[in-house]
Amino acid sequence: MRRRLFESRIQIILVITTLVMIILRFLLNEKGRTSPDSIRYMRTSNVFPVIDNTTTPLGYPLSIKFFTLFSLDEFWASKVVGILAYLFLIYFAWKKKFYFKEMVMVGGLFSFVSIFSYTLSEALILPAVFAFLYVGRQVIIDEIKGFKALLSLSLMLIFLYNIRYSALFFMGGCFLFGFLHLKKHYGKTFMYSGITGMIFVVLYKFLFIDYFNENYLDVFLEIGLYPTSKLLPEMFLGLATTFNPFIHIADPGGRIINYGIYGIGFLNILLMCYLFIKNRLSETERFLVLIGVVGFACSYFIQYFYSVDAIDYRILAPFSVSIWLVYFRKLYLIFGKFTYGITVLSLMTGFVFTWLSKGNYLENRREIAKFLINEKLETGPIKFYLESDKEINNTQVAELISTVNPNVSITFKARDTLRKNTLTAYKVLRKIKIDTNRFQ
């Protein structure tokens, strides 16, 4: 009884500490943990019901829109979504008794703290993925049967796809898992749910994407986009940082510290493989691992013909979470409560990293707000001119602006600078000073 009480206290402390770290992670960042994608998400939310792009599903922007109904702007609404996503994961795992202690440990890893603090759809899809994994487990153990099982899995896959297009990989994983277990009672259920999800993707393409942007595939599909010599090393480095429980961001300067960052991640992957092979996986664990591996494989191969960001911890998070859960379960069987130490060290590392690289978002927000008021651009559409999307420092100015006025569009047309509502980094930075940090 005392041991159980002690462990419960550890879990409560870790949950509270993780929650505090999520908040500190975006407050101690120069632009509140936003990215170029964040600009699009917040703008899409702001202009809805107008559909201004189809490069992202509406699930995440609409979740932001919902919380703006409570007098929050799009930026703060996105942070509420991230915090509630984390709390939902913990509550759902506890309520359903489904990988609860593992989720406490996984959710506290610094990489996941960074995701929940980001204005990105990965924050919303993680609890949806966890619910999907739970439904899959219920089907496997025959708690959900027949048509109800097929409907439940199919709806979860469709829901995931309406948050991120990469949920297509979960459909492929479902189909493959069902095919490999075709003789089991759940085999056909997983296969048919995967097929149902793919049918929805086709209908979504013709009925939604083509309606608002008939040139979508022409713009984003390009065979031979990147060579294997570029993609394979990126995949290896992405996996190494994804499975480094302490540091998930490599030094952009390429210094010697990267050998340690990638090395820890690589050794952790080897340990995972060893534990998964040595200790027989249950049917549920095989499902979780397969879903993650298929997601990794698809994330790699799609780069040959679809333009996506370079593989990193953020892109792989929806697929890595299931593998992390199984991994921590295996570690807990060996080390018991000492396994929580990994999360403790990760949170400590994250705090040091966040503090050493801190900016001051609240101060920067005040400066940008004053600037926009003076320029009479606090409301209404803004265009931000960039010569190319490689201008990372200048893009950060646009990201910061979007946290105050979310109706920001990036333009690469020099003639747009003649318009009164077009800003440039030079025009902004000559009038205000932004507190910058060294890392993201």
What does this structure look like?
There is one protein chain. The chain is mainly alpha-helical and 440 residues long. It has two domains: 2-356, no CATH class; 361-429, no CATH class. Helices cover 66% and strands 2% of the residues. It has 19 helices and three strands. The chain has helices at 2-27, 36-47, 59-68, 74-96, 100-107, 110-117, 122-140, 146-161, 168-180, 187-212, 216-220, 228-242, 257-278, 283-301, 313-335, 340-356, 361-374, 392-402, 425-429; strands at 382-385, 408-411, 422-423. It has a three-stranded parallel beta sheet. Strand 1, helix 18 and strand 2 (408-411) form a beta-alpha-beta unit. Helix 4 runs parallel beside helix 7 (122-140), helix 7 runs antiparallel to helix 8 and helix 9 (168-180) crosses helix 14. The radius of gyration is 22 Å and the shape is globular. The chain starts with a helix and ends in an 11-residue tail after the last helix.
